[in-house]
Amino acid sequence: MSPSLFGIYVHWPFCVSKCPYCDFNSHVRETIDMSLWESSLVADLKVAYQQTSQKKVTSVFFGGGTPSTMPPKIVNTLINEIYKHWDVDENIEITLEANPNSVECEKFKNLSLAGINRVSLGIQSLNDQDLSFLGRTHRSIEAYDAINIAQKTFKRHSFDFIYTLPNQSLACWENELEKILNLGSSHLSLYQLTIEKGTPFFLQHARGDFSMKTDDQSASFFERTREMARSYGFDAYEVSNFAKSETERCLHNLTYWRAEDYIGIGPGAHGRFYNKKGQRWFERRHRAPEKWLEDIKEKGNGAHVSTVISEQEKVEEILMMGLRLSEGICLTDFSKKTGYALEESPLKQPIKILEQENLLSLQSNRLQTTPAGLQRLDGVLSFIFNYAENKPA
Ligand SMILES: C[S@@+](CC[C@H](N)C(=O)[O-])C[C@H]1O[C@@H](n2cnc3c(N)ncnc32)[C@H](O)[C@@H]1O
Ligand code: SF4
After folding, report:
1. 119 lines ligand 1 (CB under 6 A)
2. Helix crossing, 72-85 with 34-51: angle to 10°?
3. Whose CA is nearest to atom 4 of ligand 2?
4. DSSP string, 96-154
5. Is the predicted pLDDT of residue 265 greater than 90, yes or no?
6. Considering only CA atoms, which residue is closest to atom 21 of ligand 1?
7. 3-class state of residue 170 by DSSP
8. pTM of the model as a whole
9. What is the DSSP string of 208-219?
10. Neighbouring C-beta atoms of residue 42, cutoff 10 Å
11. Which CATH architecture has domain 6-255?
12. How many CB atoms lie within 10 A of CB 352?
């Protein structure tokens, strides 16, 4: 069974400009009252602390938005507050997402002094034409500089890329991927482009400005990516995440995928954790930065929605998250979290059918997706959820 993890997510909702594909909770503001943001995030963290059952923190993740635009002083204050309230694991992973713009790279040293020990750089592409299609403000020369500085400054680093772009041929991607795999990183996040509702790309795609790849073409890009990554010693430990060794995997994201406990502070952040009463609890904050600030000012608490997680939601979380991982779901862990055995539950039947279809495999105390299942993960999950009511046996 996997050791228990407890993560703290901090959301910084600001970006210098908005990328046309992105539906993350990110906003562009001319001015930001940094001291108000610092005190409000500290307040949100304190209330979250009072609600969680006492635990040892194994990871912190500053996500966004663009948290590399945060003053390192605020990052430092928050890390100090975490150390003040909780016990902290000696191998704590503290990640910050960064954009490869030169102004932000200048801050890397101070961010590392503030306590960041892992950086996740949003490179997105090494090709200038594709960077401009993606509406990025940096070019490949800045990407290479940022990679260089990140590798010299932080103990651990990961690079994000987006592929399966409308005008990208498989040969072009293979060429770029080879360069990516030679960057000397031990962790990569390689995402296939998705068109999200409400983004400029959604409108452009709907009016025919560009076409996305067919499902078959996307499947070839996906398979080829895994194949090439494997040949360079990268293990595809999650749908889009690759690591050279177990210790290089992103512990914070594993916390979500293994349905362990985490709290989230800042606008739009959510958390799932056991509260002091022993209930598994869900919390969500207002997405709009100003509304979240108002909540903190008026209630002293950023949580806009707080509710007990039902037994069925617990099961859905474990399956939706765990089946993304190559390690799958440990059955002992499943029964510890739900109070019943998966093999004796109403899930048994749909799982058996999916096993016969070679989409799932149930062996050695683990439920895992097969390579074919991983490509159809949404279908696999909706089949399971629609088949049985998922009530405890
Ligand atoms: C929170 S965002 C990025 C953080 C940082 N601001 C940046 O842009 O580098 C995390 C990652 O999700 C990926 N991403 C965001 N929107 C996407 C989309 N529509 N399709 C595929 N990947 C996407 C990008 O690779 C991005 O780096
Ligand atoms: S991709 Fe990153 S930089 Fe671009 S809008 Fe989204 S969060 Fe901001």
Report:
1. no
2. 20
3. 19
4. EEE---HHHHTTHHHHHHTT--EEEEEEE-S-HHHHHHTT-S--HHHHHHHHHHHHHH-
5. yes
6. 193
7. helix
8. 0.96
9. TSS-PPPHHHHH
10. 16
11. Alpha-Beta Barrel (3.20)
12. 13
Q: Which residue do the tokens 């060794």 mark?
A: 245
Work out the end-to-end distance of the chain between its first and last CA atoms, rounded to an integer number of angstroms: 22
Residue type, 204: Q
pLDDT for res 392: 42
Q: CATH 1.10.10.920 residue ranges in the chain?
A: 312-387
For the segment 266-276, the average pLDDT, to the nearest whole number, is 95
pLDDT tens digits, 73-98: 999 999 999 999 999 999 999 999 99
Tell me the average pLDDT of the chain: 95
Between CA 359 and CA 372 the distance in angstroms is 6
Tell me which architecture the domain covering 312-387 has in CATH. Answer: Orthogonal Bundle (1.10)
User: What pLDDT digit, counting tens, does each position of 339-383 carry?
Assistant: 999 988 889 999 999 999 999 999 999 999 999 999 999 999 999
Helix/strand/coil for 345:
coil
Q: Where in the chain do CATH 3.20.20.70 domains reside?
A: 6-255
Distance 122 CA to ligand 1 centre (A): 7
Please, are residues 53 and 276 in contact by the beta-carbon 8 Å criterion? yes
Strand partners, 96: 62, 119
What pLDDT does residue 388 have?
Answer: 67
Ligand 1 centre distance from Cα of residue 305 (Å): 26
